[in-house]
Specification:
Radius of gyration: 17 Å
Largest sheet: 5 strands, parallel
Order of helices and strands: HEHEEEHEEHEHEHHEH
Strand order of the largest sheet: 2-7-1-8-9
Number of helices: 8
Bound molecules: adenosine-5'-diphosphate, guanosine-5'-monophosphate
Low-confidence stretches: 1-11
Helix content: 40-55%
Structural class: alpha/beta
Shape: globular
Distance between the termini: 31 Å
Number of strands: 9
Mean pLDDT: 90
């Protein structure tokens, strides 16, 4: 249905840039547990801008309280690979070693951009690189912790991962933090109100 805009494809790109003349693409990354979801929830509540969260597909199991189609589309590995083969993802990666797949669905993102909305992609550093390479006008924001110890405390406090998964997330976190310099903006999520304010200010300045 859509041309794959991640490939060097002139028609796909010009269509995208036309869409971007109304909507905007905002990429948010940061290690698991840093508070991306928490900050974004507040930004969505408080910002007057037409923000829409891109709901990714994932093969990971829902956490208690997570609802299909709200935080993610929770799908099987088979369904995920079928969508991948069918070119339905703007980007997709196996974010954690030997673990689960996550991917941004093209259809939802493009529909929202065409309607003039500002689409927020909450994706890992690999996905961010891929989307930014294809769409340099995307705005990129990295959310970081005050320290790795704080991150660990938050992951423990959230209590959603078993010991193995938490160790893998912490290992991945130290890798991800090295990419922070590639982003247009960096926000330290120490005090929540301050992080939300900084995020909203970045968007308002656009
Ligand atoms: P992410 O979406 O980046 O994986 P979450 O939004 O789930 O992270 O936050 C991880 C944990 O940290 C949650 O328990 C959340 O309540 C807590 N948290 C988020 N931001 C802050 C903050 N600024 N101060 C203290 N705790 C926070
Ligand atoms: P969680 O399982 O904690 O919700 O997310 C784990 C990691 O996957 C986070 O770093 C998050 O940004 C990333 N992620 C979520 N959705 C996507 C996606 O569609 N694409 C990519 N590349 N990463 C994603």
């Amino acid at each position: 249905m859509w041309n794959n805009p991640v490939e060097p494809d002139t028609a796909g790109r010009s269509r995208f840039f036309k869409m971007q003349s109304t909507g905007r693409l905002i990429i948010v990354s940061g290690p698991s547990g840093v508070g991306k979801g928490t900050v974004l929830k507040r930004v969505f509540e408080e910002s007057p801008l037409p923000l829409r969260l891109s709901v990714s597909a994932t093969t990971r199991k829902p956490r208690t309280g997570e609802i299909d189609g709200v935080q993610y589309w929770f799908i099987s590995r088979e369904e995920f690979q079928a969508k991948r083969k069918n070119d339905e993802f703007l980007e997709c990666f196996e974010v954690f070693d030997g673990g689960d797949w996550y991917g941004t669905l093209k259809r939802h993102v493009f529909e929202q951009l065409e309607q003039g909305n500002w689409v927020v992609l909450e994706i890992d550093v690999q996905g961010a690189r891929k989307v930014r390479a294809a769409f340099p006008d995307a705005i990129t924001i990295f959310i970081e912790p005050k320290s790795v110890d704080v991150l660990k405390e938050r992951l423990i406090g959230r209590g959603t991962e078993d010991e193995n998964k938490m160790q893998e997330r912490l290992r991945r976190a130290t890798e991800e933090l090295r990419f922070a310099g590639e982003y247009d903006h960096r926000i330290v999520n120490d005090e929540l109100d301050q992080a939300v304010r900084e995020f909203c200010e970045i968007l308002e300045r656009l």
